[in-house]
Amino acid sequence: MGLTALCPGTFDPVTNGHLDIIERASETFETVAVAVLENPAKRPMFTVEERIAMLEKVCADMSGVEVTSFDGLLVDFARRRSDAVIVKGLRAVSDYEFEIQMAQMNHRLAGVETLFMPTNPSWSFLSSSLVKEVARFGGDVEGLVPDEVRARLHDRLEEGR
Ligand code: PNS
Does pTM top 0.85 for this prediction? Predict the structure, then answer.
């Protein structure tokens, strides 16, 4: 049996940058487990159920991709799947500094390996936080997130006005 790529994140909301990594992981690994962090302390814009629903919709055509949630330590979730390696996208050197710390800690805690995938340069400036900020101030995020996500973002912001 092949390895599972564990793609963890907050995904609040999923962006085209996340999707690029998930899709490329699905071309390399037999299974991709997209793991959505359930952490209300981060005060996400979307509930974990909403984030999962958006991911399921936009990953529907990718083979071997499943979407699930986790709370607590990522390694505890990873340990339940003995065949899993963590796959993370790296946008820039600034990402690397924190990502290497987390990768080393996860390896130290549970021997779980992390593989880094360079982000497609088209998305190296993109983050969920920036997308939310741009949308909040009326900027157009077309082409940065899937259309369904853009619509939900718009609806959520309208609800808050
Ligand atoms: O999309 P994000 O917010 O950059 O994802 C970060 C995430 C969820 C991968 C990271 O915060 C995480 O793994 N959180 C779970 C808690 C944990 O395991 N912390 C110790 C990391 S060494």
Answer: yes
